[in-house]
Amino acid sequence: MNTSPTPSFDGMPLDPVAAVTHADPYPFYAALRAGPPLAWNEALRLWVASRAEVVESLLLAHGALRVRPAVEPVPRAIAGSAAGEVFGHLVRMNDGAAHQAHRPALQRALAGLDLGAVRTTALRVSHGVPVQPVSDALFSMPVRAVAHLLGFDDEALPQVDRWMRDFVACLSPLSTAEQLQGASAAAGELMTRFEALAAGTPPRNGTLLAAVLAESQASAPLSRALLANLVGLLSQTCDATAGLLGNSLIAVMREPSLQQAAPTRGGLQAIVEETARHDPSVHNTRRFVAEPVTIAGTSLAAGDAVLLVLAAANRDPALNPEPERFSLERARRRMLGFGHGIHACPGQALACTLAAAGLEAVLHRTLDLAAMHERGWHYRPSVAARIPVFH
Question: What positions belong to coiled-coil segments (predicted)?
Answer without folding.
Answer: none
